[in-house]
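Minutes, project check-in
Item: structure for the 445-residue chain
Input as provided by the requester:
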Amino acid sequence: MTNLDENVATAVLGIDTLWGGDVLNPSGTGRFIADSWFSDAPLPAAYTSPFAAAVRAAGGVTPELPAGALDGYLAEVDVHGAIADIGDEGLRVGGLRGRYLTGLAECFVVMWDLAMELAGRGEAVPYGRCVRAITGKDPEPSAPEEKRARLAALLAVSGHPSSSQDALLAAVDAWRRERLVPQKSIPALGAAFIAELDALTVRNVLPFLPAELAPVPRANVAFLPIENAWFSGSMNYLGRARKADGSPEYEATYELNAALQISVPEFQQLVSHEVVPGHVTTFAYLQNLFVRGLVGFEASVLTMNTRPAALFEGIANNAILMAYGVTEVNDLPSTDLQIGVLLALLQDDAKNQSSYLTWQEGRPKDEVARVLREDFLVSEERAGKLAGAWGLHPLLGRMYLPAYRFGTELVAGLRRRHPAEKILPALFGARGLVDALTIEDSLGS
């Protein structure tokens, strides 16, 4: 590993540790910032230190963390110094890679400052700074009106007309109840949708990507039920299994919350988002590019709450459209699927709104949940979690929730403006590792 690689490893796993994450935990209940460690490089002291284990065991910088454990960790591991070095190296390297690195450093500094705020060792971090770090834009509320109007028209065609906002929410609930995914059928239904979406990806995505990516497994994933999770689902990219010849198996798991209230069309969109051609496919392609030496070490330690993550969420939320080879929801092949995708997009608008109402306007949790339920038509289960565990989280609520809507709109706009042969290789890293603020520059003129 180069000095830059070591700094990247220390910064990523250091920030992850401060927030209670364990990148080697196979479950999303134990992971946090660091999404992957699929290189065969040895883990740094930022992970292996006994102090790191103590910080992780306490759930990161929380009231339960003994001051001695935090002091010992920061004395042994120079997390802040590693972040500064990444930023300096990014400026020295320049170009797309340099901007990618400086973007990482900027997001890491915000996450560091938020951790120090939580530990009582720093000033409160302004909400606007958090959102600008990951999106490059000031916070703004969501505008769901156009999607709601289109949804109402489609629901009327499906036998659920509405004449008011309350009636529209009732129509959505009735439509969803008629199509609820039986929990015991999730593995079988997931396998069926993966097969269908992978075949669509072969038809509508693969022809526009470099031929070397064709043999890479796009959906080596196992579905696992999980009880009482604060998330709806967690894609856990593992990527550490190797074949006899030493090549990766590109494996992942997807944990689905057993309490999730989701219809079959929404579940199809979810599978495209999490698996193929969404997150699992994206990570597998990046692992392949890393193994072939076409992208740097930073591509092997992918992280949430960063500009690359905003891009990945945008890719995943547009994945169903990519699979069908279209750019607009209206062009999807069935009314049910259009409804399911619009509901998913409204949920991402709701994530942004939860963040904005909670941190920009200081609204209480119950009020935020009511707005998400009534204006964005999410289920009661989703409204409660987005207003609570997600929206109130000092990091996810202030920084990550706005990234979903931002990334979705970014990728949708890029796909409308650029032909598939130009934009798809860039999205999946074949033109170099990019993030939400550098991808346009990778496309050239």
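Outcome recorded: The chain has 20 helices and three strands.
No further action items on this chain.
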